[in-house]
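Reminder to self: keep the SMILES exactly as supplied, no canonicalising. Ligand is zinc ion.
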Amino acid sequence: MTARPISETIASLMPRAKAELSELVAFQSVADPAQFPKSECEAAADWVADALRAEDFQDVALLDTPDGTRSVYGFLPGPAGAPTVLLYAHYDVQPPLDESAWLSPPFELTERDGRWYGRGSADCKGGFIMHLLALRALKADGGVPVSVKVIVEGSEEQGTGGLERYAEAHPELLAADTIVIGDTGNFRVGLPTVTATLRGMTMLRVTLDTLEGNLHSGQFGGAAPDALAAMIQLLASLRAEDGTTTVDGLATDTEWDGLQYPEADFRKDAKVLDGVGLIGTGTVADRIWARPAVTVIGIDCPPVVGATPSVQASARAQISLRVPPGQDAVEATGLLTAHLEAHAPWGARVAVEQVGQGQPFRADTSSPAYTSMAQAMEAAYPGEKMQTSGMGGSIPLCNTLDALYPEAEILLIGLSEPEAQIHAVNESVSPEELERLSLAEALFLRNYAESKRA
Ligand SMILES: [Zn+2]
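Structure tokens returned for the bound complex:
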């Protein structure tokens, strides 16, 4: 009898995977006690812990993280001397938003037109099922060739940082040779993609004062230095005419050398209105993955309703700056601060306060882990080569793990391709993607173990 290929094993495991994903999606595990009972998250965590125990994981534990949620941990020892791979997913989900806009109940996995609909089906309960499928297939096909740690977070969507703080306080717990974060997605269905870079961010609050108090705009307007007008000029100095971010001393001409993002696709994904142009220069990928981007995310000024004819004495704004890989977030913060201090008109008084900062991330795509993943993805997606994309946003846990384990390679893969509509209504997962990515992950673990033996 010849052993059947591992791809067939995974195919045979798909009905069970669907049944399990249905059970997992049924938990209304939104980590926001104001909206959903905490018992839903607790039940989902218990389900994950039971699933790990059933796969012979040891030391399975529900970790109480400082934000009041629970992450689930387990360890599956591999052969002596084998490397350790950490697999990440999260069981908490976004709220369903407008339930009436869902075509089927958000917490009931429903098949429609070849996709499985339900909140968390792709982001990221499907990611946990993907890890289970990969491990089960390996077990059925000669065994898991690496030691595996699994961590399934309980509050990723809330951004409360519980697992980050816990990991920092227990630096040994998640130590691994390679980390697979199963929470991103292919650029499109059928195109195997690893997210290889993330932009960092710095967040500043700028307060601008010009007068001791507000003045009558008839009596004083025209000569009195208007703080709101000064703020508008100051914020305008952060952009060129074409919308390119312009912060003194900050490079804005870096280029993206991976997968390209066609402009028409971007317009559609971003829902840009007809006749309205994009901002910036270079390719779309340059602009969103390789260059800095400033966004004014809030302005304190009098609201329109109840506005009085006054010259404003002060104004305040909050500014986010996305920092691309290759730039240092601390340096970018300094440059943005200096720019804001230098560009206020009329000698207006400016105070800048930093309210947040995270470094960008760039994986080493020539590492053994990336080579192993590229081979695995090409086998799981016949005829396709693995692509590398960037992500404009940040994943704070990625920075935490990168800082704790600088030697470990981090790979970001997952089920959240564009059609999955994660965070929106009618989220879904493609079962073919689940099958192919589970196969890719299984083959990756095997290739990676071999590369370490060689
Ligand atoms: Zn997610």
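Points to follow up:
The pocket of zinc ion is lined by residues 90, 123-124, 156, 183 (CB under 6 Å).
The mean pLDDT is 96.
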